Amino acid sequence: MKKIAIIGSGAGGLITSSKLAKDLSKQIRNEEVSITIFDRNLEQEFQPGYLEVAFRGTDPAKIIRRVEGLVSPGVKLVYENVEKVDLADRYLQTEGSKEKYGFDYLIISTGSSPDYKQISGLREDNMDFHTDAYNSNLIYQRISKIKSGRIVVGIAGLPYKCPPSPNESAFMLDEYFRKQGLRDNVEITYITPFTRIYSAESINEVIEPIYEKRSIGSVTAFNTDYVDTDRKEINSMEGETLKYDYLFLTPPHKTASFLKGTEFSDEDGWVKVDRRDLHITSYGDSFAIGDTTNLPISKAGVEAHLEGIVVANNIAAEINGMERKYRFTGRTQCSMETGFHKATFVVGTYDKPVEKIEPSTMNYMEKKVMEKIYWGSLHGHYEWLFKYHFKEDYFQD
Ligand SMILES: Cc1cc2nc3c(=O)[nH]c(=O)nc-3n(C[C@H](O)[C@H](O)[C@H](O)COP(=O)(O)OP(=O)(O)OC[C@H]3O[C@@H](n4cnc5c(N)ncnc54)[C@H](O)[C@@H]3O)c2cc1C
Questions:
Q1: Which residue among 65, 66, 97, 161 has the greatest number of ligand 1 atoms within 8 angstroms of its CB, and so is best to mutate?
Q2: Pocket probe mutation, ligand 1, options 66, 77, 291, max atoms within 8 Å of Cβ
Q3: For ligand 1, atom 33, which residue shows the shortest CA distance?
Q4: Is the pLDDT of residue 156 over 90?
Q5: pLDDT for 211-253, tens place per residue?
């Protein structure tokens, strides 16, 4: 019996399990292979939907699903928090348990989450759309009460997931207050540690004029040091101070705590992987995908998905007696909503720089289609569409 363990039932973990369950269905029926997902949560949330919940008042229940309805037949679920992984002896342990779960293959897809410990004072006043649907819903309740004031939005620290999301929040706040007829009463300022409004020059060229047209201010090369909640000030490491009434900052993110201090992760706990086949450096049968890797690419669901497909293909090939030949191209594709039913996309690979794509209603519609098919895509229902859309970036073989 080959035992495959997956930690995390999010965007990366679920598609990996679905693809493996499909390719190894015969072996699962014959009890030659088992697939088990470990996750502490009974529910999954469609994280890109946090923006809609926070800035358009979408019902948070609409972006939440129970995990048991998302896994493919033959995949086992263990609702526990993983506390320890031993790659050399191939076992993991869950919180408070002495039992060792052995595995032949391991896939770590434990994501990333806001780390408020890094910036003093940030948690107290921040309206956070990177944690969960509940917090995002609180934002909508709070912005509904704002009639005037200074809004500061942007990036409080690196890394964080979904690179365009802070810009999207600036555009969505602008749209919200324009629709309320209150835009002249609120000042919106975007802050970023980068030296331009968007880190990739091609996208910056596209969105900078929109910032100007919509009168959204910006302060670049601003590395947030701490927030003084009594004085309502954000202080940068460069010595600048900004006044605010309302804060919508994206905090720096952290990895799962059990990964910190392991020999297979870097000093911040991000897992060191091969950028092409995602195996954990020096452990050929263990892999990490999605936000939790140390790859210098976007932390985004698209990456988690394409990486999961590569890893699942290689494991299934090996179990079926073939060679592991599938490779990830580093492809990213994150949508960036620019407000009023328009969007652009951040598209690039390891070898191709980010493209310049003008915002359009067509792009916005494509984003909406992705939202509609999200849950089904975790089951692997739309792999034909992914293959068609991503072409040579679906995987290399
Ligand atoms: C506001 C916002 C907008 C976004 N927009 C986009 C977008 O437009 N396009 C895009 O591609 N991506 C977008 N993303 C990013 C995307 O949601 C994530 O990058 C993606 O979910 C990462 O997948 P993952 O599998 O790595 O982690 P996740 O989907 O976060 O799943 C990680 C899972 O691991 C579990 N876990 C963690 N630690 C443990 C442990 N110790 N034991 C057991 N289980 C554990 C968690 O409970 C969780 O279920 C957005 C994110 C946000 C917040």
A1: 161
A2: 291
A3: 8
A4: yes
A5: 999 999 999 999 999 999 999 999 999 999 999 999 999 999 9
C-beta of 345 in contact with ligand 1 (< 6 A): no
Q: Which atom of ligand 1 is nearest the CA belonging to 112? A: 30
Q: Tell me if the pTM is above 0.85.
A: yes
Measured CA to CA, the distance from residue 35 to residue 7 in angstroms comes to 11
Contacts 24+ apart (CB under 8 A), 235-244: 242/152, 242/189, 242/191, 243/150, 244/125, 244/150, 244/151, 244/152
CB of 7 sitting under 6 A from ligand 1? yes
Task: List the end-to-end C-alpha distance of the chain, in Å, as a whole number.
Answer: 27
How far, in Å, CA of 364 to CA of 53, rounded?
A: 17
Chain segment 96-133, per-residue pLDDT in tens: 899 999 999 999 999 999 999 999 999 999 999 999 99
Pick the CATH number of 114-253 from 3.40.630.30, 3.40.50.300, 3.30.70.990, 3.50.50.60: 3.50.50.60
Q: In this predicted structure, what is the pLDDT of residue 14?
A: 98
- The reply to whether ligand 1 has any atom less than 6 angstroms from the CB of 300 is yes
The domain over range 2-40+80-112+255-393 is classified in CATH as 3.50.50.60: yes
Res 282 pLDDT > 90? no
What separation in Å is there between the alpha carbon of 11 and the centre of ligand 1?
6
